[in-house]
Amino acid sequence: MKPFTLLYFILSVVLYLVALPLLIYLSFKHKYKESIPARFFLFKNPRFKSSDGVWFHVCSLGEARALKPILDLLKDCDIKITTITHTGQAHARRYDAEVRYLPYEMFLPFWAKKQRVLVVLEAEFWFMLFSVMRAKGTRVILLNARISEKSVKKYLRFSWFYKKLLSNVEIIYAQSEADKNRFLDLGAKNIEIIGNIKLAAEIKKTKEYKKPRGELIVAGSTHEGEEESILKSFVEYKKQSDSKLAVVPRHPERFEAVYELMKRYADKNSLTLSRFSQDSEFDSDLILVDAMGELNNIYAISDIAILGGAFRDDVGGHNPLEPAYFGCKIITGKHFFHQRELFKYVHHVQYVESDEIYKALMKCKELPPSMVEEKIDLKPVIERIVKN
């Protein structure tokens, strides 16, 4: 190991020992009961079987989904995938690939096997992963790479560190000109702008649901604190519109808490309430969608989509391509910094604060449906991945 890499490794071990009691505690939490034992204790997380594959590393569900058009073009390759979150892991297991959780950094020198190429998506910058794989003779590619406007100052403060990290990378495929310039400021080289690979994803529904009478509004990928504002706005809007609201929380562990919140609003305002898991019809005034993988199916029959994750300042927004593809009129918050590049391609979106959702709903009547323009070409990426 190089001196800096050795020092970093030692610090990672010290941090692990300090955090050990917390890690053990979190291992019993439902949200982390699979990912933390796998990542920090290597429980049911063995090494990859072979050493000549294409290894993709993604963080969570959105990036795991974005892999599909690429994997469709690499059918003859030995594919490996690592993830960070359990939702990303669950989706990655749908592919014909060896799937693992990415271990904590101190395990990587012993756990990781040489591969033909390592492709890391978005902003998953792990120093030991990059340096260990480069030392083992694996080419490292950054794909869909981004540095958000909100994060850039933090990166620049440690530019000396990121320069070392990025020196292990063969090529960076950046999402935008702004991202390219931010990587250049960090000392990176060999950067190409390819756009956001999520534009290449096939968007489709998996089931057909009957569109209810009247207007269907879907609150998609909502986070804590957002449902309250949406429900308040919907109650006012419903006084002037024959409409129904389906709420789809981003994280399944919040289903019960969101149901209790919706029940309070239903009781207070004499609205009917149902759970999608018990009744997949959309006849109630309020519907909690307490099931995974249904959002596109619901976008397909919805008139308006209130896209969560952007009414808070700490999430960064969610993918607008799916509701736009199905022609929903999109309302979202102003804190969409992680999805800024995607929103560039979506037209007729209303960006509002949480206390302006009612006004946005009223304005929807005079706005056209949202739409997506532009596609990207994955051919240069595929050629780079498979080259010897």
How far do the termini sit from each other?
26 Å
Helix content: 25-40%
Portion in beta strands:
15-25%
Beta strand count: 16
Shape: globular
Q: What is the total number of structural domains? A: 2
**DSSP helical segment count:** 17
How large, in whole angstroms, is the Cα Rg? Answer: 22 Å
Give me the side-by-side strand order of the main sheet. Answer: 3-2-1-4-5-6-7
Largest sheet entry: 7 strands, parallel
Low-confidence spans: none
As for the CATH topology of the largest domain, it is Rossmann fold
Overall pLDDT metric: 95
Q: What is the CATH top level name of the largest domain? A: Alpha Beta
The CATH homologous superfamily of the largest domain is termed 3-Deoxy-D-manno-octulosonic-acid transferase, N-terminal domain
Catalytic activity: lipid IVA (E. coli) + CMP-3-deoxy-beta-D-manno-octulosonate = alpha-Kdo-(2->6)-lipid IVA (E. coli) + CMP + H(+)
Site (Transition state stabilizer): 122, 198
Function: Involved in lipopolysaccharide (LPS) biosynthesis. Catalyzes the transfer of 3-deoxy-D-manno-octulosonate (Kdo) residue(s) from CMP-Kdo to lipid IV(A), the tetraacyldisaccharide-1,4'-bisphosphate precursor of lipid A.
GO molecular function: Kdo transferase activity
Give your account of this protein's structure.
This protein is α/β, with parallel strands linked by helices and 388 residues long. It folds into two domains: 28-200, 3-Layer(aba) Sandwich (Rossmann fold), CATH 3.40.50; 215-372, 3-Layer(aba) Sandwich (Rossmann fold), CATH 3.40.50.2000. Helix content is 36%, strand content 18%. The protein is built from 17 helices and 16 strands. It has helices at 3-26, 35-41, 61-66, 68-72, 86-92, 108-111, 127-135, 152-157, 159-166, 177-185, 226-238, 255-268, 295-299, 321-325, 340-343, 357-363, 379-386; strands spanning 54-57, 79-83, 98-101, 117-121, 139-145, 171-174, 191-193, 215-222, 243-249, 273-275, 286-288, 304-307, 329-332, 346-347, 349-351, 371-372. Strands 3-2-1-4-5-6-7 form a seven-stranded parallel sheet, sandwiched between helices. Strand 6 (171-174), helix 10 and strand 7 form a beta-alpha-beta unit. Helix 11 runs parallel beside helix 12 and helix 11 crosses helix 16 (357-363). The longest helix has 24 residues, at 3-26. The chain starts with a helix and ends with a helix. The model has no long low-confidence stretch (mean pLDDT 95).
